[in-house]
Amino acid sequence: MKLRTDTCGDCHTITANVIQNIRVDTTDYDGDGDISEGIAAEIESLQVLLLAEIRTYAQTVIKIPIVYDAVVHPYFFIDTNQDGIADPDETQSNNRYNAWTPRLLKAAYNYNYVIHDPGAYAHNSDYILQVIYDSIADLSGDLTALTRPPANP
Q: Average pLDDT in the 51-62 region?
């Protein structure tokens, strides 16, 4: 199960021998204009956008702000002071987010799934990018600068 990085370069571009910098292609998925960054950085940029869309949707559609903490279960809490930071007094089980719509729940699940798989860039980056892109789209986020990976045949 050990990663054999000595043969990755046969099919992939890896910058500075850092496996997180692996690339399969030169598509700029996150729209920042940088096609030399690794696919892990593309995914991280889209994660930031998805969390922003989750917060915007909760605030504007549901009217109950949400905050995320990757360490404290159940991860999503009511942002009582609306500062976007998961403060210790907010990350309590009695303050868990409970105003879910199906659309928000799906996006939050996908976000948490990607956050908790730090090797997602290596496991199936196209799928992960599609999940994030589709979640942003489902929350009516701005996709104009983003590129969705094509579905595999």
A: 98
